[in-house]
Amino acid sequence: MSNNNNDTNDEVARATAAAAKDPATETIFDKLLSGAWPSDVVYEDDWAFCFRDVNPQAPVHILCIPKVRDGLTQLVHAREDQKDLLGHLLYVAKEVARKECPEGYRIVINDGKDGAQSVYHLHLHILGGRQLQWPPG
Ligand code: TR5
């Protein structure tokens, strides 16, 4: 687990580089979804896929993504007809968090460059398993 200043700077650098790329290109999450790359899957159903983050920022760090990206590179691009999907993802994240983090948790969406988003496939971060601080950096 890591959360020092160097990691924070690295994450911002990755986010800045990712934001400069064409958001239509496939992301690493497509490889995890297809099984081409291994992932530690926590939950999946027809719409949602939840797996442990490879670089955890807390004892519990799980990502929850839509199985089909369909333009959802980032939250800001969500369409009205995707409201049910967004609600489903939030509900699934809550259910996963309730089981994994009985003392509480945080659900985060990083959006765009200033949000330090580095992978352009919508994802909810579920963080817990320790006392989280506020405000975030
Ligand atoms: O910075 P944002 O909000 O876009 O979050 C992207 C998250 O994807 C980060 O927390 C990364 O640690 C995580 N990530 C990146 C890779 C990866 C992953 N989680 C699981 N497995 C991964 N693989 C195999 N490869 C990655 N590059």
UniProtKB/TrEMBL annotation:
GO terms for molecular function: catalytic activity. It holds the Pfam family HIT. The active site is at H123 (tele-amp-histidine intermediate). It comes from the Eukaryota. PANTHER family: HISTIDINE TRIAD HIT PROTEIN (PTHR23089). It comes from Phaeodactylum tricornutum (strain CCAP 1055/1). A motif (Histidine triad motif) lies at residues 121-125. This is HIT domain-containing protein.
